[in-house]
Write a structure and sequence with these properties.
The chain is an alpha/beta fold. It has a single domain (3-208), classed as Ribonuclease H-like superfamily/Ribonuclease H (Nucleotidyltransferase, domain 5, 2-Layer Sandwich), CATH 3.30.420.10. It has helices at 36-46, 83-90, 105-120, 130-138, 150-158, 174-190, and strands spanning 3-7, 16-21, 27-33, 50-53, 125-127, 194-199, 203-208. The protein has a five-stranded mixed sheet. A hairpin with a 5-residue loop joins β2 and β3.
């Protein structure tokens, strides 16, 4: 089963990266898109078995939006994010909380719209988080995404897991590497090698199976 991983950008002015892995975790293709319609067309043509998007795909329980002027609020008092984000924090994995003060509001809205459209078209979509996947697979010494050694570090650690990356050497950057990470997480999920965090009512996060 092929898996399509997406490193989604908040702005349509910047390219979002797409990585496609076959059932043997071989990188068969790297793509990019600007408009959501470009991704939906690609998905309709490729018909992957699973789509793994690295962005929040649901609002917290009790929320209808992230508008500060709206009266919607957390259904559980004194929360600051979705359950999966609170669970990540307990694991020592940093993340942006999904709330009305979020600095990634546009990314959240885009992820929700895109996942809804893909699911309405009959595709299976999961939420993944590349930073969490990296920490679980490679340990807590993973360099920050914007550091100078980030790309080379991820390539070195991904190469034993994902074949075919050398053919795309010229196209590998921080965003395409995250798209590959997302696709690999999806491939693990297809093989029942993942755990999940969160609550179905406000989003489930898929992670590589955690050590016992």
């Amino acid at each position: 089963m092929s898996v399509l991983g997406v490193d989604l950008r908040a702005s349509r002015k910047k390219p979002s990266a797409v990585a496609i892995l076959d059932s043997h975790s071989h990188l068969s293709e790297l793509r990019s898109f600007y408009e959501d319609s470009e991704l939906t067309e690609l998905v309709d043509n490729i018909r992957p078995g699973l789509i793994a998007i690295g962005a929040p795909l649901n609002l917290p329980s009790g929320f209808c939006c992230l508008d500060q002027s709206c009266d919607c609020r957390f259904s559980v008092p004194d929360r600051k994010g979705r359950l999966l984000e609170l669970e990540l924090a307990k694991m020592g994995i940093s993340c942006f909380y999904t709330n009305k003060g979020s600095i990634i509001r546009e990314l959240i809205y885009r992820g929700i719209r895109l996942s809804r459209d893909l699911r309405d078209a009959g595709h299976e979509v999961i939420e993944v988080y590349p930073h969490a996947t990296k920490m679980l697979l490679f340990g807590d010494k993973v360099p920050p995404k914007n550091s100078a050694i980030s790309v080379s570090y991820i390539i070195d650690h991904l190469t034993p897991l994902v074949s075919g990356m050398e053919k795309h050497a010229d196209d590998l950057d921080r965003n395409t590497c995250d798209a590959i990470i997302n696709a690999y997480t999806g491939q693990l999920h297809a093989q029942s090698n993942t755990d999940v965090l969160g609550d179905p009512d406000e989003g489930i996060l898929v992670l590589p199976k955690m050590p016992n």
